[in-house]
Amino acid sequence: MDLFRALTRGASLDKSKSGSGSFTKATSAQIRGQQGKQKALKEEVEKEIDFFHDHKIEKHTADELEDETKDKNEGQDDLPPPKIQTEEDASKLRKKYGIKTSGEDLPLPIGSFEDLVTRFKLNRTLLDNLLKEGFTEPTPIQCEAIPAAMYDRDIIGCAPTGSGKTLAFLIPLVQSLLDFISPKNSVKGKSTKGSGIYGLVVSPTKELAYQIFSELSKIVNGVPGIKVAYLNKSLAAKLRNKVIQSSKFNIIVTTPLRLISLVEDDAIDLSHIHHIVLDEADKMFESNFVEQTDRILTACTNPHLRRSIFSATITSSVEEIAQSVMTYPERIIVGHKEAANTNIEQKLVFCGDEHGKLIAIRNMIQQGEFKPPVIIFLQSIPRAKALFHELIYDGLNVDVIHAERTQVQREKVLEKFKRGELWCLICTDVLARGIDFKGINMVINYDVPNSAQAYVHRIGRTGRAGRIGRAVTFYTKVDMDLVKTVVNVMKQSGSVEGVPKWLREGMPKLSKKKKHELKRNPVKRGRISTVPNIDSRKRKKRRDMIDGSKRRELLNKPKNRKLQDNDDQAANIN
From edge to edge, which strands make up the β-sheet containing 330-334? Predict the structure, then answer.
């Protein structure tokens, strides 16, 4: 190597430029590049003049080189400053979107997903996946909830349906996991290998749990070191039979009962969980779920456990229970706790009786108001089946989904509906929560829901991701108590057009006792059929007579067979 050439490298004169005007301020990227060149040159020169090989050359580990490469890649583009830098900026954002926050030492919200890279060093692949899926700007709930979770805060999050609550807890969950398993933690003495499941997401229904898993799989695609799982029947059997270990996965999405069953069989260990999310929290703390939720939380014994709950509706009683199991949570409310999405046009239709409902829905079809895709909600499984048989004979492209259908059947129906092969889906409240169908034009409440929360979740299947949707609720004379709660939600959402004045102002407010009674004891309704009652009774009587005749015939068969055998024996003797 020519030492003189190496030492004089870079020292050239440009005679075409002279004076102070030829000097320009170097950018940070240029400075970093120049520093890198100088460092490389220094090492080259030292190696050349080390005649006796007694000079110690600094060695770099693979992890350090990886970190240097990452730092170089991150430094290639100068990141803009965060959009939200002061409390004044935060106040403007909160006022604009109607966000109410409370808690101790509240962090500043974010104004863009790029702010997460600037403030929390968000993984680039994770950011690219978000942009690839069309998530270019954070929603109000994401602006507040993501930074709060990144600061390891417990969260109570309430925002309208279709407002991006799923990503509000998945993004910080994935990023905090990446920080936890990074090589830097190992350097600091924090062993992350074999540390068990890091994150747990619990949802009340299988459909919603699988949807969350699908979203999670999309945003972690290509991110190294992360393994996620949906706890279905097949995986549960493998865990129970020790075919695979639960520690293989970093994040698990599940429903309560299946998880509890595995915990009790010692097939899954929740003691290392760092972050648990309860989605549709108001449902998870209802009387039929609260015991299961409590058993799951009890099994999560990590002293550093972070808890988050999210829902479109959170009642005061649910919030009180949640506060009792959380540590100084940050409370984030977007809009009103029991208000519907403002992108939904809500309408009430009085039908008189059950026969009037069938006439009303057929009129909507004939007059062009029935614009697919449409979801129709009913109170019970028998009623959903009855309406399905009525509409399918009208030639409508329709199917039904409820708890009595198998998981495979439900999944097939949902796939057909998503692909547009079905125009209308009839269902019970099994699909009322969280399921994200793209572009639902209308929701019809054939039966009035038994609570404000159920109403908000039902109509929340439309008007998602900024689109405009329509919600129509049929009511009859027996629904006068229930319809009052619907009117209250409509008033809070600013959608009372067409609601009679006597219904808005003249009806007395329901007591808490009455509300609980309506939840426990559904309204008794007439049957769904266009056949007159007298004809229906005649048909039933005829079916009963036929069934009775068949039963008698079956009972008499052994006797007839015995008599025939006796006759044959007598004939043989003769």
Answer: 99-102, 330-334, 155-158, 306-311, 275-279, 199-202, 251-254, 228-230
Q: Is the pLDDT score of 14 beyond 50?
A: no
What is the reported pLDDT for 411? 87
Q: What pLDDT shows up at residue 107?
A: 94
Predicted confidence (pLDDT) per residue in 359-370, tens digit? 999 999 999 899
Angle between helices 290-299 and 256-264 (to 10 degrees): 50
Which helix or strand (DSSP H or E) is residue 519 part of? helix 512-520
Question: Mean pLDDT over residues 392-411, rounded?
Answer: 88
The better pLDDT of the pair 10, 478 is held by 478
Contact between residue 296 and residue 270 where contact means Cβ atoms under 8 Å apart: yes
pLDDT at 528 over 80: yes
The closest of 180, 232, 246, 237 to 203, measured between CA atoms, is 232
H/E run at residue 332: strand 330-334
Round to whole Å and give the CA distance between 97 and 83.
16
pLDDT tens sequence across 485-524: 898 888 888 887 768 887 877 677 777 777 777 777 778 8
Q: Do 530 and 390 meet the contact criterion of CB atoms below 8 Å apart?
A: yes
Taking the CA atoms of residue 17, residue 21, residue 22 and residue 23 in that order, the dihedral angle to the nearest 10 degrees is 160
Task: Decide if pLDDT at 15 tops 70.
Answer: no
Tell me if the domain spanning 344-520 has CATH number 3.30.300.20: no
Give the H/E segment covering residue 351: strand 344-352
Q: From the CB of residue 192, how many other CB atoms can be counted at a distance below 10 Å?
A: 14
Biggest CA pair distance of the chain: 142
Beta-bridge partners for 230: 253
Question: pLDDT tens digit string along 306-357?
Answer: 999 999 988 888 888 888 889 999 999 998 877 788 889 999 999 989 999 9
* Residues 135, 466: Cα–Cα separation, whole Å: 12
| 372-395: pLDDT as tens digits | 999 999 999 999 999 999 998 888
Cα-to-chain-centroid distance, residue 231: 15
Q: Residue 15, class by beta-carbon neighbours within 10 Å (0-12 exposed, 13-18 middle, 19+ buried)?
A: exposed
- 391 close to 370: Cβ distance less than 8 angstroms: no
Domain positions in the chain are 87-334, 344-520
CB 433 within 8 A of CB 366: no
CATH code 3.40.50.300 for 87-334:
yes
> With helix as H, strand as E and coil as C, how does 523-572 read?
CCCCCCCCCCHHHHHHHHHHHHHHHHHHHHHHHHHHHHHHHHHHHHHHHH
Residue 181, C-beta contacts closer than 8 angstroms, at least 6 positions apart: 192, 198, 225, 250
**Global pTM?**
0.73
Which tokens in the block code for residue 302? 């990590």
Residue 246 contacts by C-beta under 8 Å, 6 or more apart in sequence?
196, 197, 239, 252, 262, 267, 268, 269
Indicate if 344-520 has the same CATH topology as 87-334.
Answer: yes
Verify cis geometry, omega within 30 degrees of 0, for the bond prior to 373: yes
522 C-beta neighbours (distance < 10 Å), count: 12
- Judged against a pLDDT cut of 70, whether residue 533 lies above it is answered with no
